[in-house]
Design goal:
CATH class: Alpha Beta
Distance between the termini: 42 Å
Number of strands: 14
Shape: globular
CATH topology: Carbamate kinase
Number of domains: 1
Strand content: 15-25%
Largest sheet: 8 strands, mixed
Structural class: alpha/beta
Number of helices: 10
Strand order of the largest sheet: 5-8-2-1-11-13-14-12
Radius of gyration: 18 Å
Order of helices and strands: HEHHEHEEHEEEHEEEHEEHHEHE
CATH architecture: 3-Layer(aba) Sandwich
Length: 285
């Protein structure tokens, strides 16, 4: 349905309270999953981020890239092995992860943001030791447990009105590079920034009371209720670490966290600039 000019104006004015609410506030967006695989959705996410930047919001884009890492490993003849949902990362795999995340994907996203008129600069967790890490589990090799986050490089970019695009590679003082889970990295970065919001994009509608019923979405939950959902078995499998990252971010000082359905067109704008929202919001008690 084609909107009239008056209807377009009404849509914009309805967004005004939210634009005022988030003006000059830091919003961390963890980007990955289906929204990264689909070129159409990728373009819409980048367009949303540029729009937020232009209306005075300060977005920080934190990205993973699991499917592209798997594809590159396959090309060089290395099999992808996972333990408890995390990629086993030997020294060679760590180098490929760094190449794909900090190189190919990061610069591709920066380039798209530029196409939409955004001023973006890509950095990795290695730059200025933004993400310091140590080995999480010997079985996993160079998969990192975050030990420290130095967000000053991000703050410097935001001050100059750039959109920081952060790839989730970490480092230690011995020169090792680590593969960092993107949800974990985003929660630590958002916490260190004391961000107003963390939006983590995924491939499901949000927290579901019944995993087989997409309409059973839980729209809002506090950290105490989320822990109860763990105990009740409502949150299980791959959702456990995602929701735990939400709880961690809240406890580190983030105001609200949303698990967002990245398959919904312009989901970021729906979440931030409308009453309806999109996904499950997690907040403090």
């Amino acid at each position: 349905m084609e909107l009239t000019n008056l209807q377009r104006a009404e849509v914009i004015t309805q967004a005004l309270p939210y634009i005022q609410k988030y003006h000059n506030k830091i919003i961390v967006i963890k980007y990955g999953g289906n929204a990264m695989i689909s070129e159409e959705l990728k373009m819409q996410v980048m367009e949303d981020i540029v729009l937020l930047s232009l209306i005075g919001v300060r977005p920080v884009l934190v990205h993973g890239g699991g499917p592209e890492i798997s594809d590159m490993l396959k090309r060089v003849g290395k099999e992808s092995v996972f333990v408890d949902g995390l990629r086993v990362t030997d020294k060679e795999t760590a180098e490929i992860v760094q190449m794909v995340l900090a190189g190919k994907i990061n610069k591709h996203l920066v380039n798209i943001l530029g196409e939409f008129g955004g001023s973006a600069i890509g950095i990795s967790g290695i730059d200025a030791h933004l993400i310091e890490a140590e080995i999480k589990d010997e079985r996993l090799g160079f998969v990192g447990e975050v030990t420290k986050v130095n967000v000053q490089p991000i703050l410097d970019l935001l001050e100059k009105e750039y959109i920081p695009v952060v790839s989730t590679v970490g480092c230690d003082n011995e020169g090792n590079a680590y593969n960092i889970n993107a949800d974990t990295a985003a929660s630590f970065i958002a916490g260190a920034l004391k961000a107003e919001r963390l939006i983590t994009m995924t491939d499901i509608p949000g927290i579901l009371r019944d995993v087989n019923d997409p309409n059973s979405i839980i729209k809002k939950v506090n950290t105490q209720e989320a822990r109860q959902l763990f105990e009740d078995g409502v949150i299980s499998g791959g959702m456990i670490p995602k929701v735990q990252c939400c709880i961690d971010a809240i406890e580190m000082g983030v105001n609200k966290v949303t698990i967002l359905d990245g398959r919904v067109p312009h989901a970021v704008l729906l979440e931030l600039l409308t009453d309806e929202g999109a996904g499950t919001m997690v907040k403090g008690v």
